[in-house]
Amino acid sequence: MTQFFDVPKIKYEGPSSKNPLAFRHYNADELVEGKPMKEHLRFAVAWWHTFCGTGSDPFGPGCAVRPWDDGSNSLEMALKKVDVAFEFMEKLGVPFYCFHDRDVAPEGKDLKESNKNLDTVVAKLKEAQDRTGIKLLWGTANLFSNKRFVHGASTSCNADVFAYAAAQVKKAMEVTKELGGVNYVFWGGREGYMSLLNTQLRRELDNLGRFLAMAVDYRNKIGLDAQFLIEPKPKEPTTHQYDSDCAACMAFLKTYGLEKEFKFNIETNHATLAGHSMGHELAYASSYGMLGSIDANRGDELLGWDTDQFPTNLYTNAQVMLAVLGQGGLGRGGLNFDAKVRRDSFEPIDLFYAHIGAMDAFAHGLKIAAEIRKDGVLKEMTEKRYASWESGVGAQISEGSASFETLEKYMLEKGEVTPNASGRQELFEAVFNRYIG
Ligand code: XUL
Ligand code: CO
To answer: Are 212 and 164 in contact (CB under 8 A)?
Structure first.
């Protein structure tokens, strides 16, 4: 096999290792709560960032050094990238990858040629999957880069664009099936608006609902065994994205009768752009049984855009894993590193350092979350706060046997509420910190 990376297979060396090309915490087969780490974490590499990212930003062109890349968008280059990608993923020991149709194969002169290019690359991806055992966590369609999507895809003012997007998603679903992908993601791309002055908001939302309903019909028709996931994001590229956060997506799915067909793929940097913590989005989705998968990255506290950095914040990762363990795992979902190395981390080796660091920080977060759960102190403290709901009037309200009349009678007799107890936020935070480090 061609060697693109002068790097050995990455091994686990334990927490005292100082080798930057080794794991200190990610030990794939080590059991946590009776399950191997690799099954808890289900890491995936994002094709678009890791194999297509050039490091370009609004102030300058790409400067990433990728000796294998001739910089062209040719089919030959796309096929070569399959070798690069599978060597990288095998050496890293990552079990999954994710892609957009247009990351893996170039767009042709028309839809027919684009589909043909995709088929050619998919055949090679399939071979590589069979050879290595690496699987597809999810597929998706890029409905935002080409200029035809300037006004959105299914929410475009141009009906032809809706039709093109439908054809493109149909094909992307077919190749996801061909590759045994276990999820299919819908990120809104440009489904939103830049100005309300030129926008028929209700028509656009109805069209988005119609589009997703057609996708559900087609999934059933072809027997695609993939969980559909909506990936919320509040802004960027549009000023207002329709899928702005989990709560907005829930309202949308319920309105269009689609809530049983979809779960969410929640991305850290999207949560923070929405003015939420990642913990909030996970808690919201998970409590309604809607947390399907995670795009694991982070923003920069000082920058207001989607920087897609590698998720090395231990505190956040422990919170994420607490939510994941709390719902009994991600099922067929996983942790996809929708993250790119910084522009100034331009050497191929940086791709390894970035992924190893993030995998380790998540494995560490997993161990911390498992310790928190084993001790049960935080859970106990929280349950104590809500103890009034377990009996008496609290139980009656929860069971639905109370009314305004019974509650008025109860309060008239009692006269005043049982005194409130302190929320003890600082103590909760201090207890959480006991497990970090
Ligand atoms: C964009 C983003 C996408 C989706 C897939 O912010 O996160 O890469 O994950 O389309
Ligand atoms: Co994402």
So the answer is: no
